[in-house]
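Human: Not sure, check this?
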Amino acid sequence: MVRDEIQIIEPWLDHALSLFDQVLVADHRSTDGTLEVLLDRERGSDRLTVYRYIEREFRKEQVISLLRSEAVRLGRFDWLFFLDPDEFLPFRDKQEFTDVLDSADGEDFLHFRWRNCYPDPSASEGVSSFGFRQVRPSKVGKLAISRMAAEDPDILVPIGAHSVTHRVEGPRMGKEVGEIYHFPARSPEQAWRKTLVGTLNRLTVLQAESSSPIHWHYPEALRKLARGDEPDILPLIVHDYGEVKPVSPSGTGDWVRSEFESCSFAFAGLPADESPKPLDDRQGVPGNAAPMSLAQAMNDSVCLELSRRIVAMNDTSGVVPVGDLELTLDRTIRQRANFDERAFAKLPDEAAPGLTMEAVVSAVQASFWDVRHPVASAWSEHVPFLFSLFALLKPRCYVELGVHRGASFLSACQAVASLELETTCVAVDNWVGDAHAGYHDATVFREFTEDLKQYQGFAGYIRAEFSKAVGNFDDGSIDLLHIDGFHSASAVRRDYETWKRKLSRRGVILFHDVNEYRMDFGVWRFWRELRDEFPYIEFGHGHGLGVLVVGEDSPLRTDAPDLPAPASSPMIRDLLQVFFGSVGQLSLQMSNYRASQNDLEAKLSLAREEAAQLSHRVHALERSVEAYRESLSWKLTAPLRGLRTAIRRPG
């Protein structure tokens, strides 16, 4: 699994293809040309297969599991390796490599210990033919598994493939057969970038432990920098990389000389035409080659993006629970609910369902449904109307711009499931937030996608800005559009102008907050302009909701023989306001009641657990006291206790 490895991907491919019969590589959203190199090399080799992993979250363990299944499906092999592009096997050719594998006949797991290295700092990023390696091998390494183990579903390969675990029997050890040369940082610039990324992850990963074995070096590097020191960043990052809390290095030349040695790197598929040079001849001390300052590193575009994420608290690396990943026919790895690259075609010009009295009765009944997802939201009072609207319109494609926790979107999904509609529901958001809705932490998107799993047969998300996501939709591809993004007048106008041509002939648009006047909310102002152009329905409760009937064939425009007037007529609008205003209040009160009830039940459950724990402790103490009283020492000291009682007795 690779991401933005343009400096090393070509030599790594040369190396891997010179040793292995088949190489499967998953690219994770590379933007530096890595994917293009992989695809170009794939066209020239039938032994290289490239997959695209398009999720934002780093789910290496699950991606590797998919590739492992693919390897089993594609053909026979004896051994399966899990290599990163910064790992090289120190064999000069394939014969030397296979000799080592043949010596492990009968084994199911092989262990190759890391030898942490870095190339000469004066060379360009990548792997030069000479550099420096740590004197001793690392305690951490990589495991290879046999085909039999690869086919066993009870054999689990955790993230990093540093170990394997049997689902029932527990951890399994591999036979140690050699080393892997590991280049965790290949230039001072890259080392500083890794430092910033690693430090950010430790700040934002909600469940990070202080004893995390990876990247413990990063805070140390920043602490040195804060004290005014310019640490020897390459050896500092590479030293004991991956081990739990290594000894903090001093950064002096003496320390470097004692921990690293110069060497030549001779890897299969790569040239080795230079000899190592003594440490004293390599710019004084290795790693001192113009290290970047923190300020210089922060000017890098990647680091600026990370800084923005710190403010938004939106980095979710390693936090978001893994949903079900799928491998598509075009070798794309994604979560089933991820619609980032899905295209939505123009909808057929089919007649809309008629607006009959029977349809109206069904829509009214839908407004009294229980709300499955009572998310605390300014939208809550409009959920009954949304249920009725879906029952009435039966939209073929519903798109929501601005989702947050999903109060309205999940309710729309509930309506689709309950009515058994053939509707595609698409949530569009960056899940960063804004000044009006507030900025989100990582749990918002995590909880939304968790709730979405039950609807993933027809519902998904596009995690992007609205202006980018619009490219996924053809004109005429949306029946029902809900605009609920940033609420300034200019922002809502921009969203409307960008998306209106995507509406079908049955198209209807929902605008939230049309009755909200505080701060710089401006939806109400733009809404008043639109009311003069199209038929509409308007609600004043719940911060206001506007329903704009854009499509000429919408049932809300047509006259219904069973009704006294069109749905968007003033008389019907007043009736709808009275009815849904009351039902919305009742629904909100019921949701609040259930939320309070759930909170009380949770507190009661916690109190019961605490009482049970206290009871267990009391019983344990009673047993201890009883055991002590039955002990020999208690019996032998009985006369002394009696004498003490007699002495204390008055008179």
Q: What stands out?
A: The chain has three domains: 9-312, 393-432+470-568, 582-645. The longest helix spans residues 570-629. The first strand starts at residue 23 and ends at 28.
